[in-house]
Amino acid sequence: MTICSSSSRRPLTGNAPIGTAALDMPEKGAVIGAPVTVGDVDAAAATILAAAEAGKGGYVCVANVHMVTTAKKDPGLLAAMEGALWVTSDGMPLVWALRRHGHEKARRVAGPDLMRHLLQKAETARVPVYFFGGNVATVAALKAALETQFPALVLAGIEAPPLLPLAPEVDSGTVARINGTGARLVFVGLGCPKQEYWMAAYAPHLTGVQIGVGAAFDFFAGTLVRAPRWMQAAGLEWLFRLWAEPRRLWRRYLVTNSQFIWYVLASWLLSKTGRV
């Protein structure tokens, strides 16, 4: 386990991810103006692994109601989503919105499910993986869980960076450390929107594909319990998480969800009047 330390830095950049243009781009829809990719977990994993094995870099956003609603007011987050290789629909409201606009192949691709799928594939194919995020206790538990669940996984590295605001510059030491391990998949767990800004900034410098999975670190580590399957399928996972972490998540879910509903209704009303 490594812990981040300060080192020489380069200015943050907004460049497109390395190799993005060379890949076949999947179908994308839009949910309240934010891009969301249409497809299932198998399609997402295939795109990610193809880029990873080719050393193409790039990053993947795992979008939920909170992310698309925040992007409505945050041009930087919206730009990060637009630059991603894939933006998954991690939430049934996004899937329903995509299907309403004719994207019948839209499926939910939740962060923990995508992470497990990729780890299974990476273990078989011997693709080195790296984990960046969480705290010291979480990554220690995560490392133990990975060694138990994926004994043949090539774990290139795992680290918990300091809980500080996003630095205005790319840390060249972090770049060298991650690239030096040969990691081809880099799971990032910094929380939204910090991890999306981080991935967009580091994508031009990292050879591995980054996947922003947020709380998936905690689910795998066992420090958080995921909602039952029936709640996930019914679009109620947010309610379970709110019950589990009310102090931290009340604003995200009660305020942001209300804003999302307003944006969706406003879009629907405008479409009915012919204004959009």
Overview of the molecule:
This protein is of the alpha/beta class. The protein has a single domain (27-221), classed as 3-Layer(aba) Sandwich (Rossmann fold), CATH 3.40.50. Helices cover 48% and strands 16% of the residues. A 7-stranded parallel β-sheet has the order 1-8-7-10-11-5-6, with helices on both faces.
Keywords:
alpha/beta, single chain, two-stranded antiparallel ribbon, seven-stranded parallel beta sheet, 11 strands, Rossmann fold, 276 residues
What's the short version?
The chain is α/β, with parallel strands linked by helices.
Q: How many individual helices?
A: 12
Mean pLDDT: 88
User: Might you state the CATH topology name?
Assistant: Rossmann fold
The first-to-last residue Cα distance is 51 Å
The radius of gyration over CA amounts to 18 Å
Strand order of the largest sheet: 1-8-7-10-11-5-6
What gross morphology would you assign? globular
CATH class: Alpha Beta
User: How many DSSP-defined strands?
Assistant: 11
| Percent range of helical residues | 40-55%
CATH architecture: 3-Layer(aba) Sandwich
- Elements, N to C (H/E): EEEEHEHHEHHEHEEHEHEHHHH
Structural class: alpha/beta
Q: State the low-pLDDT regions, or none.
A: 3-22
The main sheet comes to:
7 strands, parallel
> How many discrete structural domains?
1
Write the layout of secondary structure elements.
Layout lengths: L1 E2 L5 E3 L16 E4 L2 E4 L3 H13 L5 E5 L1 H9 L1 H8 L3 E4 L2 H9 L10 H15 L3 E5 L2 H14 L5 E6 L8 E3 H9 L4 E5 L4 H9 L6 E4 L3 H6 L7 H5 L3 H8 L1 H27 L4
Parallel strand pairs: 1-8, 5-6, 5-11, 7-8, 7-10, 10-11
Antiparallel strand pairs: 2-9, 3-4
